[in-house]
Every structure is written in C-alpha cells, then in structure tokens.
Specification:
Shape: elongated
Distance between the termini: 38 Å
Number of strands: 0
Largest sheet: none
Low-confidence stretches: 1-31, 576-606, 608-618
Length: about 625
Amino acid sequence: KQWYQRRVRGAMGSRFCLRMLQFTQDIDESYYGDLTLDPPATATITQVRADFYKANSGCQMRGLLEYSNWISEQLVYLPKSNKSRPPDRSVTWSTDYDVIIFALQLMHTQEYGRAVAILKGTETQNGRFLYYYCKYLEGEKTRMNKVDVKNRREVKNEELTDLRIEMEQLRQADKLDTYGLWLLGVILSKSNMPDRAITILVDSLNADPTFWGSWKTLAKLIKNKNQLQALPTLPHHWMKNFFYVEVCQEMYYANDALSYIQALEDMGLTNNPYLLAKRAEVHYALREYDIARDTCKELLARDPDRLDIVDMYSNILYVKDDKAALNYLAHHTVEVDKYRPETCCVVGNFYAIYGNHDKAITYFQRALRLDPDFLSAWTLMGHEYVELKNFNMAIECYRNAIDVNPRDYRAWYGIGQTYELLKMHTYCLYYYMEAQRLRPTDSRMIVALGESYEKLHQPAKAKKCYMRALNVGDQEDIAMIRLAKVCEKLHDEEGAVRWYSKYVDMVNSAELEAGDDICLAHRYLAHYYLRNDRLSEADVHAHKCCEFKETKNDGKALVRQIAAHRNSGSGVYNPRFAHKTSNNLRVKLALHNTPGSHKRGRSTPPPPPDHSDNDMSF
C-alpha cells in the first residue's frame, strides 16, 4: 500500500500540475486534421538498385549490420536485370585499412573495448566513426548488463555525455560525414535532446539521402502531426517514401501509409516483404483483423523463419480467439528460435488465451530480459496484470511501455482503464485524453472520454464526446445510446427523443445489435409519446417494455394507463412511473457500466489534477 501511494498517488507534484495545464491548453482543432505531405518521389529500378548498393557498402564497412541486412533484403526482392551490376568494391582505404577490418571483426564478437583501443588515434572518416560507435556500443553493453525489469528507467549509458561533447566539437570542425551525423543524432536522442537530434539527422540526410539509418531514427523522434510538418526541408529522394510509410504507420495515419506503400510498389518494389509487413501493421491498426491475418499468413508462407511480425500476428489470433492457429504459431516460433523476444510474446499469448495468466507473465518477463525495450511485452504484461487485478504492477508495465514509445495508444488507454477500475476518474481522464490525441478518429478513445466526464458529473462535455464518436464512426455501437442518456440527464427532451428513436430504428433494421439499454429507450419513448397524447406510438413502446424483464412492470403500468386514457378520453398522464427503476434494472445497469474488456487493444506518467474548469475541444 505504501509503495502504491508513493508511486501512484504521491506522483502528483507541482511540475506535473503545470504540465497538465499546459497539455489542456495545447489541444486544438489543427491537431486532428489530415496530413499535408510531399507527393511520393519516383525513381527507376536502375537508380534504386544503385542507391541501395552504395548504402549497403557504407553500412557493411561501418559494422551497421541491422541496416545492411535491411538493404540487402530490399535488393533481393528487386526485379532481376542482367544490365545491373554491383559497384566495384576493390577500394583501398589508406593506411588504417587493416586496423578497421580488425575492428569490424571485434565488433562481430562484441569485444567493443578492444576495438576502441586499436581505433584510438585514427583520422579517416571510417576509422573515426568506428571509434565513437564502438564506445557507444560498449556503454550500451554495460547498461544492458545492469538493467532489469524494475530499474530500466534508472540505468543510463555512462558514455553518452563524453561522446556528445566530443562529437559536437567534430561537427563544428566539419569532420563528420553522414554516418557520423547519424551517430550524433542517436546520442542526442538517448540524451533526451530530441529537437537537437532532429536537426542533426536532417543534416545527415541532406548529406546522403540513401542511408536508411538516418531516416528510421528520424521517424522514431516524430511524435505528432505538427512536429512532422514543422521538419526542416528534407531531400526529395525516393527513400523519403519509406520514411513516410514508417511515420504514418506509427502515427496511425493509415490511408497515407497505404498510399506511400502503393507508390513504392508502383516503382517496382512488388512482393517486398518489408512493405507487406507494413501493410499488415496498418490493417491491424485499423482493426481489420481478417485482412491483417491473411497478410501475416502470406508473409510467413514466403519466409517461414521470419519472426519480425509474429508478436503482432499472435495478438490478432488472440483477438480472433483462434486457439488452434495460435497453438501452431507458438510451436513453430519455438522451433525457429526460442530465444527471440517475439517468440516469448507468442508463447505468452498462447498461455493467456487459455487463461493461464501467471505463465503468460513469465514469458513476457523472459522477453523483456532478452530486450528491455520490447514494447509488445510491456503492454501485454500490463494486460495480464489487469486480468489478475494486480493494478499496481499493471500501471508500472504500462508506464514502461510509454517510456519505450510514447506514441503507443494502447499503453495510454490501458492505464486509463486501470484507473477507471480503481474509480480514479480524474486520473483516467488524462490518459484517455492522451490516447485520444494519438487516435483522434478512434471512437473507443472518445467514448471512454465521455464515460469519464459522465462520472465526473460533466454531462455537457460527455455529450460532445459522444457526438464526436458518432461523427468519426462508432466502432462498438454504444455512443448513440450513451448520447441519448446524457441528453436525458441534461433534460434535453428533443435530443433524447431523437437519439432514442434513431437507436430503436437501427436496432429494428438490424443495423445495430440490441444492447441491454434498449429497454430504457422504449420506456423513455413510451412516456414521451404518452405525455404528448400520441397513444398509438406510446402503446407500441409500452408493449416492447413488457418484453424485457427489467422494464416489464413499468411496461404493464404504461399499458394500463394508455388504455385508461383511451377509454375515458380525458385521462391524465401519471408521472408516477416516469423515473421509477426496478432493482433488477439497477443491478443490470451497474454490471453493464463496468469498464470494458481489458483484452488486446488497450493502452503511464503520474496522475492529473481536476479538469472541471478546462473545456475540451476536438
């Protein structure tokens, strides 16, 4: 209890209060508009291949294996051509060529300290880059040896400060090439200087736009639409299409991401596994699970040993409750490589779908020991702790997920739901607002905001939320009935009748699935039509009330009152039953209004002050 109060309740400080006030003031309509991006750049396959060869050669000679592997994969899936030849690589690098080759071999065996020692004093661009890059990797290796699940935020790379100072001096002396500027940008981003890092990475791209590492690192630093559109001028190179795919997919601008994927495919990059994986991620974000599942199956059929997207694929199978497919996927990934964090997440989902939450948490923790920054494991482990009602650990997991990627709406949404379960509605409002900023067109986030405003006794703001949810497309078919009930609370009779009537009509036409609140709609409309002497319509809704156990008694009373009104011709409406709710109905509504499922699709900084004076806008 003391730990909980210290980490959760005690987190309300003056700094956070100021941050929260600034956050509420920054919300404006411009945040939710469409992106205005450059048109896709084009190039011939010959030019694409030549640029890839050039970038791949530079990455290989600097030990950047991650980016070299990515470029090599793109080259493999380019259309074949007998006219294209790889460039001549018989290049002499001056006198320190042998030293650099030896340093690369030491990097492959992770002996970074030895590599730093032999590279000290080299003056060539390649040697200088490898010296500072090995110092950075040595610091990361030391950090990873100290880090665990509980202290990952406290342990830092101790080499960052010295590296930043030395490399800034080299930049001022104009001694850094594209790769050196990229490394400086990485160091600045790790030092919590994102704005400065963005400037350096843009300089790196202007020097050489073919290096994928600078594009990818820059994409990770873009947090929102305004920041993307405020970027300095980027080179109009065809590699920028890959950058926009990465950014739009991370920021949930699905249509823009798909358009740039299509532009790359039109250039000749068809059957490209990277683009196919991005299509699957975009459809997953759109909750088009069937399309995303088929895309993942196609990708695994082409390359069964590819594990990059199996954690997302397992999430889709979990949501679809496809136990057989998830069982097969878990066994397959263990056979391929059981020491990959993606494999551990698949096995964790396998245990979770059968309700073995403790075993699932064990595998998610194993994934985090392999990679403490593996986002899916933090989020999924938070979901499992919620299932076990261990809310303190759930909050901590979601908080770590936000540290890894602040753009992951599922972590924000998940901690909002956790605070809602704890009945801390002022707190959960903040996290729902952040989730809704990340997903401005997702009705689930907006409805959750509306429910929080209702519980904070602010029905006018809740009404705005439900209207917004209907405008963007209600995914769960609950915004309309919630809007009608809020109108009833606000004594907006015209609005309540309009939305209750529309809800009933859509249920009758099978456009919506009837919820537990359909009986409330019939009862309200029966009272309304009876008050206005529209007895035929009142009689229809009164008889509908009799079909539900919760409103059966009220419906019978209304039928009798309508009959008396017709027989006497001067009957008076009896409001005795207008606001009467049976005990059974109250119990059912209490159950219905508990927070929704905490399965896959949920989304952790300290709690906020009261927002009662801060109006929200969309």
